[in-house]
């Protein structure tokens, strides 16, 4: 029993990689029954790879919105105030407040320098903003 099981195992170890390679190769090549117009051919790289997919999670949307606002206003104090307002409005975002404040701190330090960015600190989400400013180096 053990000998035949070992033999089956060795056979599978030799055959399975070949089958996987061939099936993968066939999966990425054109098939004769499909319409072979250029719009139907799938390639490994797309034309618009540089465009980011829209984030779907509310915390990602809020983070991107606030970071964009920081780029426009150049005032992290205003952005932190808006973060606090959003968290007050939607308490479900509280769990992500620290992560968002940290990202705002890093972006503010990159934009204004750590010393100027630290002056805008607010008591929003404990010390996450300050930690974000401090992590920029």
Can you tell me about this structure?
Helix 2 (58-73) packs antiparallel against helix 3 (76-89), helix 3 (76-89) runs antiparallel to helix 4 (94-112) and helix 4 (94-112) runs parallel beside helix 6. This protein has six helices and no strands. The mean pLDDT is 79. The chain is an all-alpha fold. The protein has helices spanning 2-28, 58-73, 76-89, 94-112, 114-118, 128-135.
Outline the fold blueprint.
Layout: H1 2-28, H2 58-73, H3 76-89, H4 94-112, H5 114-118, H6 128-135
β-strand number: 0
The chain-level mean pLDDT equals 79
The N- to C-terminal Cα distance equals: 64 Å
DSSP summary: helix tally: 6
| Residues in β-strands, percent | under 5%
Poorly predicted runs: none
Fraction of residues in H or I helices = 55-70%
Radius of gyration: 26 Å
Shape: elongated
Structural class: mainly alpha
**How is the main sheet built?**
none
Q: H/E order of the elements?
A: HHHHHH
What's the short story on this structure?
With 137 residues, the protein is an all-alpha fold. The protein is built from 6 helices and no strands. The mean pLDDT is 79.
What are the defining features of this structure?
137 residues, mainly alpha, 6 helices
């Amino acid at each position: 029993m053990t000998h035949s099981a070992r033999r089956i195992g060795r056979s599978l170890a030799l055959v399975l990689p070949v089958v996987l390679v061939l099936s993968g190769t066939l999966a990425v090549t054109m098939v004769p029954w499909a319409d072979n117009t250029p719009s139907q051919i799938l390639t490994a790289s797309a034309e618009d790879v540089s465009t980011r997919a829209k984030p779907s999670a509310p915390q990602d949307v809020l983070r991107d919105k606030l970071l964009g606002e920081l780029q426009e206003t150049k005032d992290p104090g205003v952005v932190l105030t808006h973060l606090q307002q959003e968290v007050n409005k939607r308490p479900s975002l509280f769990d992500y407040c620290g992560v968002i404040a940290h990202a705002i701190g890093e972006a503010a330090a990159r934009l204004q320098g750590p010393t100027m960015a630290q002056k805008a600190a607010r008591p929003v989400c404990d010390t996450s903003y300050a930690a974000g400013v401090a992590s920029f180096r």
